[in-house]
Amino acid sequence: MREPDDPYSTVEVRNPNGRETLFTVKVAYKDRTGVTLADTTSQVSVPANGRATLRMAAASTGALDRLDHCAVDPRATADR
């Protein structure tokens, strides 16, 4: 399998609040058995009652050939 030059995940964050908020998003990259190969965290500002799309670079797993799926924490943490 050819390793991609720029592996990433795309995450949509929705903000149900009445003000713009900065959210921290966490993604875990896992193998087919559910073992975490790498984690990545990023922040995104989301407008009031809106949504934002975040492109998150896959942390260097050293084992992209074992990468099967990613798991996103279903609740992003509001930071402000």
Write a structural description.
It is a single chain. With 80 residues, this protein is an all-beta fold. Helices cover 0% and strands 51% of the residues. It starts with 7 loop residues before the first strand and ends with a strand.
Radius of gyration: 14 Å
**Shape descriptor:** elongated
The helix count comes to 0
Helix content: under 10%
Topology:
Elements: E1 8-14, E2 21-30, E3 36-46, E4 51-57, E5 69-72, E6 77-78
Antiparallel strand pairs: 1-4, 2-3, 2-5, 2-6
Which characteristics define this entry?
80 residues, mainly beta, two-stranded antiparallel ribbon
Summarize the structure.
This protein is mainly β and 80 residues long.
